[in-house]
Amino acid sequence: MIAVQETIRPSADLRNHYNEISKQCHEKDTAVIITVNGRGDTVSLSYEYYTRMKSRLELLEVLAEADEDVRNGRVAPIKDTFSDLRAVLKEGKI
Predict the structure, then answer these.
(1) Taking the CA of residue 60 as centre, how many other CA atoms within 13 Å lie in the half-sphere pointing to its CB?
(2) Does 57 lie in the same domain as 38?
């Protein structure tokens, strides 16, 4: 499991201390939660951390779909799958 370190900062800090928040996001892989009137509003992450998180979520979605396919019997022998892929490739559809 991935534990995300979080820090809470008021929205005024975005304007007054942006460089500090950016540095914190980049150096510590920290999610900075920005509050407005004491309530969570947005989250700031480094771009690199965001792309890694997004990739993990996309992989989890694919795995969940595959798991559902297996549970519902929507599977085929690997031999058939490769035969179908070869046919599609020969037709130039991919």
Answers:
(1) 7
(2) no
Q: How far apart are CA 45 and CA 30, in angstroms?
A: 7
Q: Look at residues 48, 50, 40 and name the one whose alpha carbon lies nearest to residue 11.
A: 40
What is the DSSP-derived secondary structure letter of residue 43?
E
Amino acid, single-letter form, for residue 43: V
Same domain, 65 and 83: yes
Same domain, 28 and 40: yes
Q: Is the pTM of this model over 0.85?
A: no
In sequence order, what are the residues at sequence separation of 6 or more whose Cβ sits closer than 8 angstroms to the Cβ of residue 53? 45
Q: Which domain holds residue 54?
A: 48-91
Phi-psi domain of 29 (left: phi exceeds 0; alpha: psi -120 through 50; beta: other): left
For CA atoms 19, 25, 30, 36, the dihedral sign is positive
pLDDT digits (tens, 9 = 90+) for 26-49: 998 899 999 999 999 999 999 999
